[in-house]
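re: ur question from yesterday

yeah so i grabbed the chain u mentioned. its 153 aa long if i counted rite. heres the sequnce exactly as i have it in my notes:
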Amino acid sequence: MAGIDVVNTNGGKLLFYNVDAAVGRGCQNGRSDVLLVQYLLREGCKAPDLAEIQNGAGFTSMDITGVWDQYWDGYLGNYLRTLKRKGKRVMEDRRVDPVVGGRLLGSVHHMQHTILFLNLGYVQLRPNDFPRMSEAGDCPGELRPVIRPKFVR
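ran it thru and got these structure tokens back, copy pasting raw so excuse formatting
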């Protein structure tokens, strides 16, 4: 199930939104994980330097459905290809794997996780909404309870 997690950076620990299991072609594609990836990817594609991703996939609608299909696979593929062209160290494997153990880089490929790039895209476009994404007006209703911060005493 998607949720809030912590990643270790040189500057300390940062909160981010993480998937529980991989999303993409041939992956588990849990509903809340897919909703999170679809929402972050749709919002990230609104950045001026990433706007060609949707059109490049050959489709016109980025409806958030919670189901991974060929349309979303195309969007993710174009997103990763665009990041790679911009010099980002990202795997073009059409997968969004979870960050495990707070590690910034993948244990096998030693590149930054796609889910972190998706988070960065959202925070750059919508810095005021990022800390409370579950309260954003366009956040999918089903996603809200799983990414809502929970405080423990």
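noticed a couple things. The chain has a mean pLDDT of 86. also The first helix runs from residue 31 to 44.
anyway ttyl
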